[in-house]
Write the structure tokens for this entry.
Amino acid sequence: MTISYKKINGTEVKADGTETAPSLICIQKKIDGVGVCMIPLNEGNTDYQKYLAWVAEGNTAEAAD
Amino acid sequence: MSTLKVNAIRNVTATSDAVTLATDGTCTANLSNRQGRNLIINGAMQVAQRGTSSTGTGYYTVDRFALAYNATASITQAQVDVASGTTPYTLGFRKAFKVTNGNQGSLGSQQIMEFKYKVEAQDVASSGWNYTDPNSFITLSFWVKSSVSFNMKGFFFTQDNSYNYPLETGTLSANTWTKITKTIPGNSNLVFNNDNGVGIVISLGVYGPFFSSANPSVNQWGAYSSATLTNPSETTWWTTNGATLEFTGVQLEVSDHATSFEHKSYAQELDLCRRYCQVYKSVGNYSRFATTIAQSSSSIRSIFYLKKQLRAVPTFSYSGNFQCANATNFNIANMGLESSSTSLDVVVLNQGGMSVTAQSAFFLAGNNDTSAQITFDSEL
């Protein structure tokens, strides 16, 4: 079982209702190359904590499309 | 009418008062069956939002309880029925968490297993346990049944200052439900932050190379190290093909003894579990899950107003088939979690690359799938 991550880009909605240019909105977790969940960019989330630990070990997430 | 005038009521052999009467006409009772004393949520294993059987490692079946193992092990976790006529069935327990050993033979050097529960730190901090006082106690009790006779090891671990308390069940009789009780004193070194992080980790049925071979003493607090955590459970269970282990009736309470289990209704337990996980499930072929808005001609937002405030901003996952009618190119696999718009109360899912009419509205729905489900997970 190999765990990896991919960055997911998306637009966000500004106060005037228009959208921003695409930027990082969450992290996708993959098991054996298959996406299993979307992780918020929030340090209270334990999946995000595990992602940060994975990065701290020297790993790099797959770039966003 | 007569009046009984006393200052306190005490059992003839007790060392403290059961009821203390104050001069203002009020009283304080030391109740052993008060509501809310069990710090464990879903201790009777009633709620299993995610599913009832899995070979996954982590939270996959019974809410709030995780089974951790690594990739080289083969283990199944499941929510099962407690057989009628047994005790704990006669005490009102109908569900148990079952672990089944997947015929893996000898214990490999990299194989691990832990049955885990994590208590939120602020729930310990505000429990009333004077945890820095060795004369103040917390008591863990649970029912366990193993298909193999063995001495099961486990431990308490305090996340905020890394102290551990090894424990063991003693030799369990095969195929016999046994109630285990462990009364644990406070310790001047313990720390529990008043926050939503992990407070106490309770681990049982542990196996693995990182557990000590130094045979640390059980039933005493110590600063965490690989030598003091605990030693692994007896290998007898692990090396028996198809061995099973079941748990139910888990209770952790501020007391120097175990009281009877605090039973709750399914609805009460489900409500408590939803702080940590919320699963939205289909009940028909095209069940609606959320309102979806076309923010522009190329992007949509599905908005979930959660059933209850979550512990933390959640992880999003799904299983099954979904549709968003009239939204060309819709694919739930491409829906991201919009972190900046998602909170503890509202989740916003986001997909670009669409071809839709701006400002139009849709439903995110199941697509001819009665088992489709969406999960928002904020477990510890």
In short: The mean pLDDT of chain B is 94. Residues 266-273 of chain B form the longest helix (8 residues). The interface with chain A takes residues 71, 196, 295-296, 299, 301, 311-317, 333, 335-342, 350-352, 377-380 of chain B (CB under 8 Å). DSSP finds three helices and 24 strands in chain B.
